[in-house]
Amino acid sequence: MLKRFLLPVFTLGLLTSVIGQAPLYTKTGEPTENQGRYRTLEIRGHTGGHMYGGETLTSKLENGYGGLEVRYAWQSRDDEIWGRYGYPSYGVGLYSGFLGDPEIFGNPNAVYGFINFPVSNPGRRNQFAIEPALGLTYNLEPFDPENNPLNDAIGARMAVYFNLNFGWAYRWTPEMDITYGIDFSHFSNGRSFTPNWGLNMLGINVGFRYHYNADQHRVDNEAYPDQKLQNRYLRSRKVPNIEVAENQSINVYGALGTVQTEEGAGTDTRYGTFSLVLDYQHKFNNMHSVSVGLDYFVDNSVKETYPEGDGKNSLIGIHAGYDFMFWRFTTLLHGGTYITDKLGKEALFLRPAIRYNLNKWVYAQVGLKTLGFAADWVEFGFGFRPFRW
After folding, report:
1. Residue 326 domain boundaries
2. Which residues in 221-243 are b (16+ Cβ under 10 Å) and which e?
3. CATH code of the domain containing 125
4. Is residue 349 in a domain?
5. pTM of the predicted model, to two decimals?
């Protein structure tokens, strides 16, 4: 059923992307181009299906999911910081979803931050963008061995909310867009509480986005103003990427976390984890880089889950991956494998993470270390760069 929805969305996106590039605005009077502060308000509806890896909830998830969200965004302006990313907008959003039986899943809501990276060239009437969002989901109904034994997807009342949207915005009027896209959503607590199969949802979304200029009232506050500022920001083409003077570094990163075993589900029993990472990073420019390195992990839960390990709780691995840098942030997607006994874990692991650079030498980072494609634990830590050249 999901395929019937996805094919028309892709087709519509391709067709409208090649529509003529009419001017985006008409001007009343002669206001300065891009004068004022640009904002958007959007409402968006979601529907789709679940990608579930557990066993007990299959029949409860077969009817798919629905959701509604409201987003408020600010338009970036700075050429030096944002120009190379196509002048994205960024903001906050509220989400309310229906996943299935509310007695099993609850009535999830989420609050999150997001950023909209334009991909299409400026001037197209139909704009394609990539929108990642990250926040917190609450009001979930977690697993309980007596009152909610079927829910092996969520083990806590709160979870991380992640959404990745590949969407289009079609300019309907000077103020209004029709938005539509394909998105992936994920609810998980990173095995901080078990069970934690998580909820993974793939679907489509449709909505309306309203553009306005927050400074219009300062120029002319009448209902039908004689002098009207632009409602939309006129994007110029991306500023070219530039080479970085110090494009290589050695990074050292340490992080802590906690996990809960399946046997400890519904209890307060949890185990500490530790990660130590040493890697080499090479920056191609001020946006893209790659990293390779070594990992040292300590997982105190394996003494319980893998008695064949004779009390061992540490692993050594190697990794490589891609880093996307914007402003002070870096998003990482690294993958690796173990070079010592994997102690019952999957052979491969991933580390999606977000890094915030406090300065040139020190950074904070939060990420997810996985068991294959399932969560192993959430890492919270700091890193530093002892060598840069």
Report:
1. 248-388
2. eeeeeeebbbbbbebeeeeeeee
3. 2.40.160.20
4. yes
5. 0.81
- End residue of a domain, out of 170, 199, 219: 219
Distance CA 68, CA 160 (A): 18
Evaluate if residue 65 carries a pLDDT over 60.
yes
**Token digits for 272?**
């500490």
**In Å, how far are 189, 236, 378 from 368, measured between CA atoms?**
10, 36, 5
The CA distance from 374 to 379, in Å, is 15
Does 252 share its domain with 327?
yes
Question: Going along the chain, which residue ranges are E strands?
Answer: 38-50, 65-75, 89-98, 106-118, 126-140, 159-171, 176-188, 199-213, 248-259, 271-283, 288-299, 314-326, 329-338, 348-357, 362-371, 374-388
User: Which CATH number do you get for residue 282?
Assistant: 2.40.160
Dump pLDDT digits (tens) for 94-147.
Answer: 999 998 888 898 999 999 999 999 998 888 899 999 999 999 999 999 888 888
Residue 227 within a domain:
no
